[in-house]
Design a protein that fits this description.
Number of domains: 1
Pfam family, one: CobD_Cbib
Structural class: mainly alpha
Strand content: under 5%
Number of helices: 11
Radius of gyration: 20 Å
Distance between the termini: 14 Å
Organism: Marinobacter litoralis
Order of helices and strands: HHHHHHHHHHEEEEH
Number of strands: 4
Membrane topology: Multi-pass membrane protein
Strand order of the largest sheet: 1-4
GO biological process, one term: cobalamin biosynthetic process
Largest sheet: 2 strands, antiparallel
Keywords: Cell membrane, Cobalamin biosynthesis, Membrane, Transmembrane, Transmembrane helix
Helix content: over 70%
Length: about 325
């Protein structure tokens, strides 16, 4: 149980580092990894229309791009101990979670909306979603930002903490790389439909349990009754097996309506409604940020209580 207590301490230190420092403005490892991913895609994805060959090349590219970093994480996990292990692990988890960065992106949208600056709000939301921001109404901007806070809270914060607790340094490194691959290759278009399928399915698999733990967390720290009702009745209507529970529970926890039609460069995508209540506003974005933050606080409290319980039991 000592290993669990150390892992809990790492999570607490990482969240504290994130709150104090935020994510690096330059030389972020995930940005560098993104450049490597783009290089591999350009060289391996040469015949996207050929299903079988594209599936194989996409899977091979994903394995080749991730294997070295996972190997390094395994070596560090094996060799490091004591304060060096605590420090290195905390830095890696800090780089993975980006809780403060998520809130800053969301606040840029909500602040602009509260100031009545729709153009600035659309510019800000365009940095965090792939929708045609110029076509969004103020309510659409708020909904897009709130959905991004809820979904990225699950993918970048809670899932990273989960995989570190379950599998240590290799777990959190593998998860963040898979999530990045899915973000870059997981599109259902002509170029990535087959090439990105391996990464997309692996991301679905790794996020299945964390997504449902996140949905439960949103329900517990928000409007619990409505969140649970929306989760069980609406999640299955969403096209993503993991985003559905997260966003349905999150919308219910906030008691607002999200989802619905969304404009993209390719046209309007008709999506089911999630949650219930009024349309999203700037306060919805702030509420979604607070939901993620309260959820992280709940996780840390529960983890610390368990760690103290194990420690007390061992001491007794």
């Amino acid at each position: 149980m000592e290993a669990f207590s150390i892992s809990v301490a790492v999570c607490c230190v990482a969240v504290l580092l994130d709150a104090l420092v935020g994510e690096p403005r330059r030389w972020h490892p995930l940005v560098g990894f993104g450049h490597v991913v783009a290089w591999f895609e350009a060289r391996f994805n040469r015949q996207p229309q050929q299903a079988c060959r594209s599936l194989i090349s996409g899977g091979l590219a994903a394995v080749l791009v991730m294997a070295p970093m996972v190997a390094v994480a395994v070596v560090l996990q094996t060799l490091l101990n004591g304060w060096a292990a605590l420090l290195v692990h905390a830095i890696v988890v800090w780089l993975a979670i980006a809780l403060r960065g998520l809130a800053e992106h969301g606040k840029a949208v909500s602040d602009a909306l509260l100031q009545g600056n729709g153009e600035q709000a659309r510019e800000a939301v365009g940095r965090i979603v792939s929708r045609d921001a110029e076509s969004l109404s103020d309510s659409g901007v708020a909904a897009a930002a709130a959905e991004s806070m809820l979904e990225n809270g699950a993918d970048a914060v809670f899932a990273s903490l989960f995989w570190f607790l379950v599998a240590g340094l290799p777990g959190v490194v593998l998860h963040r790389m898979v999530n990045t691959l899915d973000a870059m290759w997981g599109y259902r278009n002509e170029r990535y439909l087959y090439f990105g399928r391996f990464a997309a399915r692996l991301d679905d698999l790794m996020n299945w349990l964390p997504a449902r733990l996140t949905a439960l967390t949103y329900a517990l720290v928000g409007n619990t009754r409505v969140a649970m009702k929306c989760w069980f009745s609406q999640a299955k209507t969403w096209d993503s097996p993991n985003a559905g529970p997260v966003m349905a529970a999150g919308a219910g926890a906030l008691a607002v309506s999200l989802g619905g039609p969304a404009p993209y460069a390719s046209g309007i995508k008709q999506r089911p409604q999630l949650g219930c209540g009024p349309e999203a506003t700037a306060h919805t974005v702030d509420g979604a940020i607070a939901l993620v933050q309260r959820g992280v606080g709940l996780w840390l409290i529960v983890l610390v209580v368990f760690a103290l319980g194990f420690w007390a039991g061992g001491a007794g």
